[in-house]
TrEMBL record:
<protein>
    <submittedName>
        <fullName>SDR family oxidoreductase</fullName>
    </submittedName>
</protein>
<feature type="domain" description="Thioester reductase (TE)">
    <location>
        <begin position="7"/>
        <end position="244"/>
    </location>
</feature>
<dbReference type="InterPro" id="IPR026055">
    <property type="entry name" value="FAR"/>
</dbReference>
<dbReference type="InterPro" id="IPR036291">
    <property type="entry name" value="NAD(P)-bd_dom_sf"/>
</dbReference>
<dbReference type="InterPro" id="IPR013120">
    <property type="entry name" value="FAR_NAD-bd"/>
</dbReference>
<dbReference type="Pfam" id="PF07993">
    <property type="entry name" value="NAD_binding_4"/>
</dbReference>
Length: 366
């Protein structure tokens, strides 16, 4: 018998990966660590998963815990059970919301990851750690100006916000444990909606650009920073991310690797805006505007923030200077039959889901 610990359930990745992991290993039992306030939602999500896939029914235990607490806030009996079996850990929990206070992001992203790694080390010293599957982000690159490779991490890059910075610091903890011999795979995704249905749990990032375009008439004016036609914007469908992680989690060649789940051929910011406008039946008119001026106007000029409905903190991604090399990742994914759809292939469902589901907000689980 083996155990699989999930943090971040019932979030999007946890809900998608838990059943696929149990199907991969019929002898495994899952333990989903859930904050007390999300326990009701977790029970509902698990019931839905078990109804859709009866073969996994009864194989998941929901346990209350908190990754920001040493020992993950787990009951000692639960910890003993996890450490008494071969253990695989999916560490998915993180704060992804730029509006969250920096101290919360540091406590969840950095301290939480340190506590998960501590448990992984204890498992490795005992009955054995099968692997720590850690979900990071491509934005550990900060605002590195140039080509960022899968094995790059500390290149002296500056950070424009606490999300990028805390995820970088968290990945440093995981990478250090990996280099000391812990079996680890690091995944760096960038996620938008499903490539077929467009479904997503929240509208943020590029969706702010989309909503601004779609709220206008037949001609849509889009303020973009100068050079937007040279800045790449990564839009990676969620099903590709799930397929990639699910396949590589059981692939021995992925142990010790960092996987950049980014778009091999990303559109520029201008091309992304043009595609959104075309899918929405709009004629695009780009208005060049320096990013600092746009951010100042949103934050300080009365009525501008309400008009744009775009957080100023997201504007920096429209001038993001980093390109992500995915050559090694693409080759590794080819071994398990997974490839990333092009933006042109999934922009249609992305726009249609956005138009059809105004009830979906931009808030993350914290």
């Amino acid at each position: 018998m083996s155990a699989v610990l999930f943090t971040g359930f019932p979030g999007f990745l946890g809900s998608a990966l838990l059943p696929r992991t149990l199907r991969r290993d019929p002898d495994a039992r899952a333990v989903a660590l859930v904050q007390q306030r999300w326990l009701g939602r977790a029970r509902e999500a698990l019931a839905d998963l078990e109804r859709d896939d009866p073969d996994i029914a009864g194989r998941t235990d929901l346990v209350v815990g908190d990754i920001t607490t040493p020992g993950l806030g787990l009951d000692p009996a639960v910890t003993d059970r996890l450490l008494g079996e071969q253990l695989e850990i999916f560490h998915l929990a993180a704060v992804y919301d730029l509006s969250v206070a920096p101290e919360i992001a540091w406590r969840v992203n950095v301290d939480g990851t340190r506590h998960v790694v501590d448990l992984a080390r204890r498992a490795a010293d005992g009955h054995g750690l099968r692997r720590l599957q850690y979900v990071s982000t491509c934005y550990v690159s900060g605002r590195y100006d140039g080509l960022f490779f899968e094995d790059d991490l500390e290149l002296g890059q500056p950070f424009a916000n606490h999300y990028d910075h805390t995820k970088h610091e968290a990945e440093r903890i995981v990478a250090k444990a990996r280099d000391a011999g812990l079996p680890v795979t690091i995944y760096r995704p960038l996620v938008v909606g499903d490539s077929t249905t467009g479904r997503t749990q929240k509208f943020d990032g590029p969706y702010y650009v989309l909503q601004l375009l779609l709220r206008q008439g037949s001609t849509a004016f889009m303020p973009l920073p100068r050079g937007a036609d040279r800045v790449a914007f990564n839009l990676v469908p969620s099903d590709f991310v799930v397929d990639g992680i699910a396949a590589l989690a059981g692939h021995d060649a992925a142990v010790g690797r960092t996987v950049a789940l980014a778009q091999p051929h990303p559109p520029t910011v201008t091309q992304m805006s043009e595609a959104f406008a075309a899918q929405g039946g709009k004629r695009l008119r780009v208005v060049p505007m320096p990013t600092p001026l746009a951010a100042f106007s949103i934050d300080h000029v009365p009525g501008v923030g309400r008009l744009f409905q775009v957080p100023s903190s997201t504007l920096e991604y429209l001038t993001h200077p980093t390109l992500y090399d995915t050559a090694a990742t693409t080759a590794l994914l080819a071994e398990v039959g997974v490839s990333c759809p092009s933006f042109a292939d999934h922009v249609g469902p992305m726009v249609e889901f956005f138009r059809a589901h105004p009830e979906v907000g931009s808030a993350a689980m914290v």
